[in-house]
Amino acid sequence: MKRKKSPIFFYYRIAILLLMAFVLIHVLRQGATTEPAQQDATPAEQTIAADSTEAALLLPAPLTNCSEQLLRREGYILSYNKDRLQANWVYWLLTPERTEGNNNAKDFHDDLDVPAPRPGKWDYYNSGYDRGHMCPAADNKYSAAARRDCYLYTNMSPQNHQLNSGLWNTLEMRCRTWAKKRGPLHIVCGPIYTSEHTKTIGQNRVAVPDAYFKAIVSLSPSPFSAAYIMPNRSIDGPLNAYAVSIDSIETLTGFDLFAPLESDMEARLEQ
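-> structure tokens emitted (271 positions)
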């Protein structure tokens, strides 16, 4: 004869089943709402990409032919050369929004993120050269922090005054016009050295470039590129007189300027 089960045992089983059902529902809800953790971007990457219609930054490839320290700033990324005490290259994304702004502060200051000796005020004092911005001050008026970063001495280069205030400035203004008309521009610029013995200024011996390059690429709404090399002296004439291919700059410097570009797009834009 079978023994009748106690009602208490029956209610106990019901309670266990209800508890298991509650736990299962909770787990399923957690799985549906929890997103995988993502690695935080650096402040420079967040800022540069924040107002861009293009997700990827077209940074130059890591350098193997000279000293390099990457400095990520509010409005640009800079490859610093501790031997020459200035940038190898400076990259920034110039969007239509970044061509406007009311931040006009001018505060040249030392970059304490690089090792001593570092470039500073007294290297340029009475040197006969301007403190030439690589990433222009006028491209950083949109943000007080960006404007301050662009006055770091690591963003400066000993530039001939007539070049700095003349055709180089004309090219900077042309880039802002293109950004307004064409959309975001990926820009890389930097110094070029061709002399066997590089001239220096100041006690810290900041190298004086023989020339400067600037390369520009836009991917939307339609692919576009432009590139220039200008000697570090007083020059005149139209911008087109100094136009070159991006490939020619890469050959001269040994840099791969827009490394993430697909091969077919690179061939189309850089030749």
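Strands lie at 69-72, 77-81, 86-94, 130-133, 156-159, 185-192, 200-201, 206-207, 211-218, 224-231.
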